[in-house]
Amino acid sequence: MTKHIILGSVGHHFQTENRVISLFQGLSLTVSSAETNAIVGPSGVGKSSLLLILAGLETPQSGNVVFSDGGVAQPLLALRQQSGFIFQQFHLLPELDAINNIALPLKLKGDKSAMEKAEEWLCKVGLENRAKHKPSQLSGGEQQRIAIARAFVTEPAFVFADEPTGNLDEKTAKDIVELMFECSDANQTGLVVVTHSKALSKMADHCYELSQQGLLGYKDSSVKVA
Questions:
Q1: Residue 137 lies in a domain
Q2: CATH label of the domain that carries residue 192
Q3: 55-74 confidence digits (pLDDT tens)
Q4: Nearest one of 95, 81, 57, 84 to 147, comparing CA atoms
Protein backbone atom coordinates (compact mmCIF):
# COMPACT_ATOMS: atom_id res chain seq x y z
CA MET A 1 0.00 0.00 0.00
CA THR A 2 1.38 3.42 -1.00
CA LYS A 3 2.46 5.71 1.81
CA HIS A 4 2.88 9.47 1.68
CA ILE A 5 4.70 12.19 3.58
CA ILE A 6 2.81 15.47 3.36
CA LEU A 7 4.31 18.83 4.29
CA GLY A 8 1.79 21.62 4.74
CA SER A 9 3.03 25.25 4.72
CA VAL A 10 6.22 24.28 6.52
CA GLY A 11 8.64 26.96 7.68
CA HIS A 12 12.05 26.55 9.25
CA HIS A 13 14.84 28.77 10.58
CA PHE A 14 17.85 28.66 12.85
CA GLN A 15 19.19 31.08 15.42
CA THR A 16 22.70 32.55 15.47
CA GLU A 17 24.13 34.78 18.17
CA ASN A 18 22.98 37.91 16.38
CA ARG A 19 19.96 37.01 14.27
CA VAL A 20 17.43 34.49 13.05
CA ILE A 21 18.21 33.04 9.62
CA SER A 22 15.14 31.87 7.71
CA LEU A 23 15.63 28.82 5.48
CA PHE A 24 12.16 28.49 3.95
CA GLN A 25 8.56 29.49 4.63
CA GLY A 26 5.17 28.22 3.48
CA LEU A 27 6.66 25.15 1.81
CA SER A 28 4.22 22.38 0.80
CA LEU A 29 5.27 19.05 -0.68
CA THR A 30 4.01 15.46 -0.90
CA VAL A 31 6.34 12.51 -1.52
CA SER A 32 5.19 8.96 -2.18
CA SER A 33 6.69 5.59 -1.29
CA ALA A 34 6.09 4.58 -4.91
CA GLU A 35 8.40 7.24 -6.39
CA THR A 36 11.92 8.65 -6.33
CA ASN A 37 12.61 12.30 -5.55
CA ALA A 38 15.68 14.52 -5.82
CA ILE A 39 16.12 17.82 -3.97
CA VAL A 40 18.73 20.19 -5.41
CA GLY A 41 19.78 23.79 -4.87
CA PRO A 42 22.67 25.95 -3.70
CA SER A 43 24.40 25.43 -0.37
CA GLY A 44 22.80 27.04 2.65
CA VAL A 45 19.16 27.05 1.54
CA GLY A 46 18.14 24.23 3.90
CA LYS A 47 18.16 21.07 1.76
CA SER A 48 19.44 18.86 4.59
CA SER A 49 16.96 20.41 7.04
CA LEU A 50 14.15 19.72 4.57
CA LEU A 51 15.30 16.10 4.31
CA LEU A 52 15.29 15.71 8.11
CA ILE A 53 11.81 17.23 8.31
CA LEU A 54 10.54 14.85 5.62
CA ALA A 55 12.02 11.95 7.60
CA GLY A 56 10.30 13.07 10.80
CA LEU A 57 13.64 13.64 12.52
CA GLU A 58 13.39 17.41 12.80
CA THR A 59 10.36 19.49 13.76
CA PRO A 60 9.65 22.55 11.60
CA GLN A 61 9.05 25.88 13.33
CA SER A 62 5.73 26.26 11.50
CA GLY A 63 3.36 24.18 9.42
CA ASN A 64 2.72 20.47 9.76
CA VAL A 65 4.07 17.09 8.70
CA VAL A 66 1.72 14.15 8.12
CA PHE A 67 2.67 10.53 7.49
CA SER A 68 -0.18 8.82 5.67
CA ASP A 69 -0.44 5.03 5.31
CA GLY A 70 -3.21 4.11 2.88
CA GLY A 71 -4.90 7.44 3.50
CA VAL A 72 -4.79 7.09 7.30
CA ALA A 73 -2.58 9.48 9.27
CA GLN A 74 0.04 7.76 11.44
CA PRO A 75 2.37 9.12 14.14
CA LEU A 76 5.76 10.31 12.91
CA LEU A 77 7.35 7.60 15.05
CA ALA A 78 5.87 5.10 12.57
CA LEU A 79 7.59 6.98 9.74
CA ARG A 80 10.94 6.87 11.52
CA GLN A 81 10.51 3.13 12.11
CA GLN A 82 9.89 2.62 8.39
CA SER A 83 12.84 4.66 7.12
CA GLY A 84 16.40 3.98 6.06
CA PHE A 85 19.25 6.51 5.75
CA ILE A 86 22.32 6.98 3.55
CA PHE A 87 24.86 9.71 4.34
CA GLN A 88 27.80 11.37 2.59
CA GLN A 89 30.15 10.22 5.37
CA PHE A 90 28.83 6.61 5.32
CA HIS A 91 28.44 6.46 9.14
CA LEU A 92 29.37 2.80 9.44
CA LEU A 93 30.38 1.61 12.90
CA PRO A 94 34.18 1.15 12.75
CA GLU A 95 34.25 -1.71 15.25
CA LEU A 96 31.80 -3.84 13.24
CA ASP A 97 32.59 -5.76 10.06
CA ALA A 98 30.54 -5.29 6.90
CA ILE A 99 27.93 -7.95 7.53
CA ASN A 100 27.31 -6.81 11.11
CA ASN A 101 26.98 -3.17 10.02
CA ILE A 102 24.20 -4.29 7.66
CA ALA A 103 22.58 -6.55 10.25
CA LEU A 104 22.59 -3.92 13.02
CA PRO A 105 19.20 -2.25 12.33
CA LEU A 106 17.59 -5.69 12.11
CA LYS A 107 19.19 -6.79 15.39
CA LEU A 108 17.92 -3.61 17.05
CA LYS A 109 14.42 -4.63 15.95
CA GLY A 110 14.92 -8.12 17.40
CA ASP A 111 14.91 -9.86 14.01
CA LYS A 112 16.26 -13.39 14.51
CA SER A 113 17.04 -13.66 10.78
CA ALA A 114 19.24 -10.56 10.86
CA MET A 115 22.45 -12.25 9.76
CA GLU A 116 20.80 -14.24 6.97
CA LYS A 117 19.15 -11.10 5.57
CA ALA A 118 22.41 -9.16 5.88
CA GLU A 119 24.19 -11.88 3.93
CA GLU A 120 21.56 -11.65 1.17
CA TRP A 121 22.11 -7.90 0.94
CA LEU A 122 25.88 -8.29 0.84
CA CYS A 123 25.32 -10.32 -2.32
CA LYS A 124 22.87 -7.79 -3.74
CA VAL A 125 25.43 -4.98 -3.46
CA GLY A 126 28.21 -7.22 -4.82
CA LEU A 127 30.33 -7.47 -1.66
CA GLU A 128 29.82 -11.05 -0.53
CA ASN A 129 33.62 -11.43 -0.35
CA ARG A 130 33.91 -8.48 2.06
CA ALA A 131 31.67 -9.81 4.84
CA LYS A 132 34.39 -9.83 7.52
CA HIS A 133 36.10 -6.60 6.46
CA LYS A 134 35.78 -3.59 8.74
CA PRO A 135 35.10 -0.11 7.28
CA SER A 136 38.78 0.85 7.48
CA GLN A 137 39.54 -2.06 5.15
CA LEU A 138 37.00 -0.95 2.53
CA SER A 139 37.18 1.72 -0.18
CA GLY A 140 34.80 4.67 -0.13
CA GLY A 141 32.62 3.07 -2.79
CA GLU A 142 32.51 -0.22 -0.89
CA GLN A 143 31.59 1.57 2.33
CA GLN A 144 28.73 3.32 0.56
CA ARG A 145 27.51 -0.01 -0.85
CA ILE A 146 27.40 -1.35 2.71
CA ALA A 147 25.52 1.79 3.79
CA ILE A 148 22.99 1.26 0.98
CA ALA A 149 22.48 -2.36 2.04
CA ARG A 150 22.00 -1.25 5.65
CA ALA A 151 19.41 1.33 4.58
CA PHE A 152 17.34 -1.15 2.55
CA VAL A 153 17.75 -4.32 4.64
CA THR A 154 14.74 -3.53 6.88
CA GLU A 155 12.47 -3.16 3.82
CA PRO A 156 11.59 0.45 4.70
CA ALA A 157 8.84 2.53 3.12
CA PHE A 158 11.33 5.35 2.48
CA VAL A 159 15.08 5.76 2.19
CA PHE A 160 16.52 9.24 2.71
CA ALA A 161 19.96 10.03 1.26
CA ASP A 162 21.96 13.19 1.98
CA GLU A 163 24.65 13.81 -0.68
CA PRO A 164 25.35 10.06 -1.02
CA THR A 165 27.96 10.56 -3.77
CA GLY A 166 29.65 13.64 -2.30
CA ASN A 167 32.82 11.78 -1.23
CA LEU A 168 33.18 9.58 -4.30
CA ASP A 169 34.97 9.88 -7.63
CA GLU A 170 32.86 10.21 -10.79
CA LYS A 171 32.86 6.55 -11.84
CA THR A 172 32.21 5.23 -8.33
CA ALA A 173 29.46 7.82 -7.87
CA LYS A 174 27.78 6.64 -11.08
CA ASP A 175 27.83 3.03 -9.87
CA ILE A 176 26.46 4.01 -6.46
CA VAL A 177 23.62 6.06 -7.98
CA GLU A 178 22.61 3.19 -10.26
CA LEU A 179 22.69 0.74 -7.35
CA MET A 180 20.61 3.02 -5.13
CA PHE A 181 17.89 3.47 -7.75
CA GLU A 182 17.92 -0.27 -8.59
CA CYS A 183 17.36 -1.08 -4.91
CA SER A 184 14.56 1.48 -4.69
CA ASP A 185 12.81 0.03 -7.74
CA ALA A 186 13.28 -3.62 -6.79
CA ASN A 187 11.98 -3.09 -3.26
CA GLN A 188 9.26 -0.54 -4.10
CA THR A 189 10.86 1.88 -1.65
CA GLY A 190 10.38 5.62 -1.87
CA LEU A 191 13.70 7.41 -2.31
CA VAL A 192 14.37 11.03 -1.33
CA VAL A 193 17.86 12.30 -2.20
CA VAL A 194 19.54 15.63 -1.51
CA THR A 195 22.23 16.07 -4.14
CA HIS A 196 24.43 18.40 -6.17
CA SER A 197 24.73 15.74 -8.87
CA LYS A 198 22.95 16.59 -12.11
CA ALA A 199 23.17 12.95 -13.27
CA LEU A 200 21.54 11.73 -10.06
CA SER A 201 18.75 14.31 -10.16
CA LYS A 202 17.86 13.33 -13.73
CA MET A 203 17.24 9.73 -12.67
CA ALA A 204 14.54 10.67 -10.16
CA ASP A 205 10.82 10.61 -10.96
CA HIS A 206 10.56 14.13 -9.52
CA CYS A 207 13.16 16.82 -9.02
CA TYR A 208 12.71 19.84 -6.75
CA GLU A 209 14.92 22.90 -6.59
CA LEU A 210 15.03 24.61 -3.21
CA SER A 211 16.06 28.26 -3.21
CA GLN A 212 15.44 31.37 -1.15
CA GLN A 213 12.38 31.92 -3.32
CA GLY A 214 10.85 28.57 -2.32
CA LEU A 215 10.53 25.12 -3.87
CA LEU A 216 10.13 24.52 -7.59
CA GLY A 217 9.20 21.13 -9.05
CA TYR A 218 10.38 19.82 -12.41
CA LYS A 219 8.43 16.93 -13.92
CA ASP A 220 11.17 16.07 -16.40
CA SER A 221 13.99 16.32 -13.85
CA SER A 222 15.79 18.77 -16.17
CA VAL A 223 16.47 21.24 -13.37
CA LYS A 224 19.74 23.16 -13.50
CA VAL A 225 21.85 22.02 -10.55
CA ALA A 226 23.90 24.61 -8.72
A1: yes
A2: 3.40.50.300
A3: 999 999 999 999 999 999 99
A4: 84
